[in-house]
Amino acid sequence: MVRASLRPLLLDALAGGVVAAALAVPLLGFRLLDSSTGLTLMTRWWWVAWAALAVFAGRLTLSLVRPRLPALSLPALPVSRRQVGLAMAAFAVLLPFLPFSERSLVDKATLVLIYVMLGWGLNIVVGLAGLLDLGFVAFYAVGAYSYALLSTQLGWSFWLCLPLAGLLAASFGLALGFPVLRLKGDYLAIVTLGFGEIIRVVIQNWQSLTGGPAGIAAIPRPKLFGLVFAADPLPGQQSFGDFFGLGYAPEHRVIFLYFLILALALLTNLFTLRIRRLPVGRAWEALREDEIACRSLGLNPTTIKLSAFATGAMFAGFAGSFFATRQGFISPESFTFIESAVILAIVVLGGMGSQIGIVLAAVLLVGVPEWFRELQQYRMLAFGGAMVLIMLWRPSGLLSNRNPTITLAGSGR
Predict the structure, then answer these.
(1) Do 370 and 279 have their domain in common?
(2) Which domain holds residue 354?
(3) Which of 78, 124, 148, 211 has the smallest number of CB atoms closer than 10 Å to its CB?
C-alpha cells in the first residue's frame, strides 16, 4: 500500500508523464525516411515511452528531494564584490596571453562578452527599472544593420558608425517606450515581443534595403588607427603586423576584436554602475519597487520608462554594431526570438540587478554550450535543464542584488 502522503506526488508525476507522452507523440513518435522507394513513415514508440518515463521519474524525484534540501546559498566571501569584479576584469585582460589560451578560446570568449554586454544593457530595463522586455533583440538587430548599411553603402568606418548605431537603437527604444507607457507585467512583455517580431519581419522582407533573407555580406572590419589586419593590404594601407614588425598572423585580428568588445563591455559596466548612483538610476529603482509610490514622490514614470528603454537599447545597438563587424555577414536568422530569450535568461539567472551575476550566467548559458557544439542535438536540452535547476535552487538568481544603490549612513539598510 502506498502511503497517503505519496499519492499526490505519484498522481502529479503521473500527470506530467501523460502530458509528456502526448507532446512526444507528434515530436518523437513519427519520422519520415526518404529512400529510393519514396517516403516511409517510421514509428518510434520507444522514444515516446522513454520521454514519459523520464518526466515521471524527474517530477517524482524533485517532489521527494526538494523539500529536504534548503535553497542553495553561496558561501560568504572574505572579499567584496568590487574586488571580485576587478579580479575578473584583470583575468579577462590577461586571457589572450595565458599559456592555455588559443584562438578558439579567445573567439568563444568574444562571443560570451557580446552576451555579457547585451545582458548588462537589458539589466537596465529589467533589473533596475523592472520592465519586462521580450523584444530586446530588435535593438541588437538595429545596431547591426545600421553599421552594415552605413559601412557598405556609404563607406563609413566602424568608429564613426558605432555611436550612430547606438543612437539609432536608442531612438527605436523610445519608439517602443511610448506605446507601452501604461502597460506592465505580461501585457508589456507581449507588446515588446511583438515589437521584436515586427523588426525581424521588416528586415526579412525589405529586400531593397536589408537584402532580405540573403542578408548583407562583405561588411568591413574595424581598423586600429588606420592599421588593417590583413595579409595583403590594399595600396595605401599598412597592416598591423608590418607596422610592429610582427608579420601577419590571423590571431592578431581575433585578439583585437576580443579587446574591442572587452573595452565596450567594461564601458557599459562603468556607465551602469555610475548611473545607478545618479538621480535617474535611483528613479529606475523606485519605479521597479512601486510605481504608485514613485508618482507620489513627484517622479514622472513616463520619463523614467523612456530613459530606461533608450539607455538599454543604446548598448544593444553598440553590441549589434560589433557583432556585424565581427561576423562580416548578417541575416535575419541571427535576430530571432530565441536570442531575446537567451539574453533575458542571462539577466534572470544571473540575478536581476547584479553585474557580476550576469557575467557568470553568460559563461554558463553561452560559453559552456559552445564547448559542446559538436553535441548539437543535446545543447538545448542541457540549456533548459540548467535553467530549471538554477531556478529550483536559486530562484532569485546566482547573485541577486535588489538592495538600494544608496543607503543612509549608519542605518544598516
Answers:
(1) yes
(2) 81-393
(3) 78
3-state secondary structure at position 224: strand
Give the other-Cβ count within 10 Å of 237's Cβ.
13
Is 42 in the same domain as 91?
no
Q: Rounded to an integer, what distance in angstroms lies between the CA atom of residue 112 and that of residue 187? A: 31
Domain assignment of residue 260, yes or no: yes
Instruction: Give the 3-state secondary structure of residue 93.
Output: helix
pLDDT digits 0-9 by tens, 194-219: 888 999 999 999 998 888 888 898 88
What are residue 32's DSSP bridge partners? Answer: 41
Q: pLDDT tens digit string along 53-107? A: 888 888 888 777 665 555 545 555 455 667 778 888 889 999 888 888 888 889 8
Of the candidates 173, 178, 188, the residue with the CA atom closest to the CA atom of residue 139: 173
Cβ proximity of 406 and 277 under 8 Å:
yes
Whether 286 and 250 map to the same domain: the answer is: yes
Do residues 379 and 372 make contact, with C-beta atoms less than 8 angstroms apart? yes
CA gap 112, 96 in Å, rounded: 14
* Residue 71, in any domain of the structure: no
The answer to whether 308 and 125 have CB atoms below 8 angstroms apart is: yes
**In this structure, what C-alpha cell is assigned to residue 106?**
579567445
